[in-house]
Specification:
Blueprint lengths: L1 E9 L3 H8 L5 H4 L3 E10 L2 E8 L5 E9 L3 E8 L2 E12 L2 E12 L7 H23 L2
Helix pairs in contact: 1-3
Length: 138
């Protein structure tokens, strides 16, 4: 497994940042590696969905669990990516710190490309956090 981390401080209250990151349908707007999201089912704060990612237009199944104003846990359950992506929010004064942690690898024979893909996920995560910051500070 490879861990990828990125963080950003946003000059906005946690409520505003949460409203952006918890709008799961708008994920492709911020995360360039996510091309399309199709929600399949919802049970309370848990959503099962199919996501088309930029890597060869692969489809991945995910279970997303929302912990309001605290974190979003995304478990890749089927597809080319194995592992998790976790977004964590923390408020200090009137600012919000947003962290993303990937603990992942590419599945099967694709595993040999995990290292190469790591830098793309790292830069994509940094770009996504910056886009979320821009949106929240409007």
């Amino acid at each position: 497994m490879v861990q990828i981390q990125a963080s950003i401080e946003i000059d906005a209250p946690i409520d505003k940042v949460w409203s952006i990151v918890s709008d799961l349908d708008s994920e492709p707007k911020f995360w360039r590696g996510t091309k399309e999201v199709r929600n399949i089912s919802k049970d309370g704060n848990t959503i099962t969905r199919e996501v088309t990612i930029a890597f060869k237009d692969s489809k991945c199944m995910q279970t997303v669990t929302l912990y309001p104003k605290e974190k979003i846990q995304i478990q890749f359950t089927k597809g080319v990516i194995e592992g998790t992506k976790t977004l964590t929010l923390a408020q200090a004064d009137n600012k919000t710190r947003l962290d993303v942690l990937w603990d992942m690898k590419l599945a099967g024979m694709m595993g040999m490309f995990t290292g190469m893909i790591k830098k793309h996920i790292q830069s994509g995560s940094e770009q996504a956090l910056d886009s979320i910051k821009q949106e929240a500070q409007r």
